[in-house]
Specification:
B: about 280 residues, alpha/beta, Rossmann fold
Chain lengths: ~350, ~280
């Protein structure tokens, strides 16, 4: 898994063109996301008996996909560009989710102590950012300072998310134990199950993806992004050039964790529940599969992967629920063997081939 | 009154900075002699004397070749200069001001001693240009790196180094697709971006084609003069083509020193090194 980029002239030209035509990629992706937002909201406004009408349930589902896309983006930022395979990003997602869940829980209900504080929206938003951010800061500082890398890092991230799952399962934590937090009523004074809220949450999630994409592009196309790639491919050499590799890793890891936290916070009001299951190690691994399927170190590959896999999951778990895990596993195997660059790599090579034949 | 005004005016001058903002760098002082001075350096590993009372001086701007059979202590010598290995006794000075034995590896590097290891390690997923950009001297903190834009001066320096190492045409190519020789030059270029005073180069032509060797010899000859260059090399033909001054190491100390012809004629050198080489070729 550590071998992201094999040296071949083909992938080389792809990557380079992405590095140098940064603006085009960003503009294109942002345009697509904006169009998706306009399209979905527009179709939602059609009368409900219209053939093209998109119901509130679908809008909510798409909003959920957006949260997954944001989480995939966070994983791609550190895995694709820094080579840090985090198998515990679900923990940051869940922490952001719990911060939001506690806020929602405190609306119109009697809670006391620190949970009452989270009933204030600005404080809750602060917690959404700070909880995953601080965990990533402390965890990353300890790990990167001790130069824990590769598979060892992956294993301790699994341990981290598993430990948090056990902790949040305990009733003494006061966050709902194994049932988690649910039966939310309103957000910012608006009922959660209203039509307007559904659309608003979808738009907010999509905008969050867009914003995160721009931030990721800013990082990866800056000199810091090149230091990240250098670190991924030859860490000792980068250190020898005078870069504080640990600091670079820590900074990007924290940014990634905060993105995952925000994804979790947007996810919870749309699905109406958060429980310790979100900390499950399996979920974090699934996120990595999305990114691998979509294509590492491309950013938009992560978006495509998250969308495609989760859409397949929605369809297939209703059509043939028993087969889903086999299909997911099979997809992962096929992509790893036949498409090491993922869907994004396949798209790029198709485009290249077409360009090549046009010249002949 | 007018004095105060003058001082204020002085402070507002755009071409000057406050004294406390002037970076605290003490330049290498070579007014009183060599840029590198090693005296009576000894280092042993588990009783084995890798370096045995070694004396060596390198002049400013000199190109020096160091040859010697395996185990002669060439690599250990480089390790001592760059602060990786501490000698048991002896002195190592950089110019007449910096005692290298008191400095840690990064400090030695920032003083302007660049080392190129034998195996080329360039960042394959980055272009030649980006490789040089990362190597450029400058603030390495995370936020400044994130905000960094290549200024006019940096761009000029980059173009200058690209020209020196002869990779202008490869500027936007991916370093991973370069030939072995081109990677070696790129790595020398990355060292040059840090404006070193002394370059330590370990076996630059190992694995190179004849043509690449000629170009490398050209490059090293051009580098000498602007900075001091120490080359450790096995290939005698290559050493003959670049060296004005050769030092032969044997069992951790200097066996002979002088021009290539004088050294090659030395019977002791022939015995321990060149002789063995010729026998092998025979």
């Amino acid at each position: 898994m550590s071998q992201v980029r094999t040296v071949s002239s083909g992938t080389g030209s792809v990557r380079r063109s992405m590095g140098h035509l940064s603006d085009r990629t960003t503009t294109f992706t942002c345009a697509v996301l904006m169009m998706a937002a306009v399209l979905v909201v527009g179709l939602n406004l059609l009368p409900s008996d219209h053939a093209l009408h998109v119901g509130d349930a679908t809008v909510s589902l798409l909003g959920k996909y957006c949260c997954y896309m944001l989480l995939a983006l966070a994983v791609d930022l550190i895995w694709g560009y820094l080579g840090i395979l985090s198998l515990g990003h679900g923990a940051f997602f869940a922490l952001g989710g719990y911060a939001m869940g506690l806020y929602l829980n405190a609306q119109g209900a009697n809670v006391d102590g620190w949970q009452a504080w989270l009933g204030h929206f600005p404080l809750a938003m602060l917690a959404v950012v700070l909880a995953p951010g601080l965990l990533a800061l402390v965890f990353g500082w300890l790990a990167f300072r001790s130069r824990v890398t590769g598979v060892y890092f992956s294993i301790i991230t699994q341990a981290m998310t598993f430990a948090l799952m056990l902790a949040f399962n305990r009733n003494e934590m006061g966050v709902g134990g194994s049932t988690g937090l649910t039966r939310f009523r309103e957000l910012l004074g608006m009922p959660l199950n209203s039509h307007a809220m559904t659309v608003a949450l979808f738009v907010a999630s999509l905008m969050a993806v867009l914003l995160a994409f721009v931030v990721c592009r800013m990082i990866t196309t800056s000199r810091l992004g090149r230091v990240c790639i250098a670190t991924r491919d030859a860490e000792a050499r980068t250190r020898f050039l005078g870069y504080r590799v640990e600091h670079v890793k820590l900074a990007v890891f924290v940014v990634s964790a905060v993105m995952a936290g925000i994804a979790g916070a947007l996810y919870v009001p749309q699905v109406g529940i958060i429980n310790p299951g979100s900390f499950a190690p399996l979920f974090s691994i699934e996120v990595v599969v999305w990114v691998a399927l979509g294509g590492r170190a491309t950013l938009f590959g992560a978006l495509i992967g998250a969308l495609v896999v989760n859409w397949l999951k929605t369809v297939l778990t209703t059509e043939m629920p028993d087969a889903w895990l086999f299909i997911l596993g099979g997809l992962f195997v096929v992509v790893t063997m036949a498409l090491p660059q993922g869907i994004a790599g396949l798209a790029a090579s198709l485009r290249r081939n077409r360009g090549g034949s046009a010249h002949e | 009154m007018s004095e105060t005004l003058n001082r204020l005016r002085d402070m507002a001058r755009p071409d000057r900075v406050f004294d406390f903002m002037v970076p605290d760098v003490s330049p290498v002082d070579v007014r009183h002699g060599p840029i590198l001075y090693m005296e009576d350096v000894t280092v042993s590993f588990d009783g084995f004397r890798a370096i045995d009372r070694l004396n060596l001086t390198i002049d400013d701007g000199e190109l020096r070749c160091i040859i010697g059979p395996n185990g002669a202590g060439k690599t250990t010598m480089m390790d001592i200069i760059t602060g990786k290995t501490r000698p048991d006794s002896g002195q190592v000075w950089f110019g007449s001001r910096h005692n290298l034995l008191r400095l840690a590896e990064p400090e030695v590097a920032s003083l302007g001693i660049g080392r190129k290891f034998q195996k080329p390690t360039v960042f394959e997923a980055l272009t030649v240009f980006e490789n040089l950009e990362l190597a450029m001297a400058g603030d390495r903190r995370v936020w400044t790196t994130f905000m960094a834009r290549l200024d006019h001066e940096g761009r000029a320096r980059l173009d200058e180094v690209l020209e020196t190492i002869g990779l202008e045409a490869e500027r936007d190519r991916w370093a991973g697709v370069l030939s072995h020789g081109q990677k070696q030059w790129l790595e020398i270029g990355m060292l040059l971006m840090q404006r070193p005073r002394l370059l330590l180069i370990d076996e630059p032509v190992a694995g190179m084609t004849e043509q690449e060797m000629h170009r490398t010899a050209d490059l090293l000859n051009r580098l000498a003069g602007q900075q001091s260059v120490v080359v450790v090399e096995h290939d005698m033909g290559f050493v003959r083509s670049i060296a004005r001054h050769v030092t032969v190491l044997h069992q951790g100390s200097v066996l002979a020193e002088g021009s290539m012809d004088a050294v090659a004629a030395d019977p002791r050198v022939r015995e321990v090194y060149l002789g063995a080489e010729e026998e092998r070729h025979a």
